[in-house]
């Protein structure tokens, strides 16, 4: 999944998986979570003046995030 760099104090990058219908967010501490949001929500997040504020207002607590486990194959 292609990840776009985010200019936020808490979010490093984000991407969207069309097939799965999930948005992946990589936080400043390195953890990644997938959120089952629609593409419209993801596009609004990317276009927001403050992605951090948008995330906290629209996504956090309203969509259940699933932690992405690290791939230890390499």
Number of helices: 2
H and E string: EEEEHHE
Rg (C-alpha, Å): 12 Å
Beta-strand content bin: 25-35%
Overall shape: globular
The number of domains is 1
Give the proportion of residues in helices. 10-25%
Spatial separation of the terminal alpha carbons = 18 Å
Low-pLDDT runs: none
Could you explain how this protein is built, in words?
There is one protein chain. The chain is α+β, with helices and mostly antiparallel strands and 74 residues long. The chain has one domain. It has 2 helices and 5 strands. It has a 5-stranded antiparallel beta sheet, covered by helices on one side. Helix 1 packs antiparallel against helix 2. The model has no long low-confidence stretch (mean pLDDT 94).
Short description:
The chain is an alpha+beta fold. It has helices spanning 39-47, 51-59; strands at 4-5, 11-17, 22-27, 32-35, 66-67.
Describe the secondary structure blueprint for this structure.
Elements: E1 4-5, E2 11-17, E3 22-27, E4 32-35, H1 39-47, H2 51-59, E5 66-67
Antiparallel strand pairs: 1-2, 2-3, 3-4, 4-5
Question: What labels describe this entry?
Answer:
alpha+beta, 74 residues, globular, 24% helix
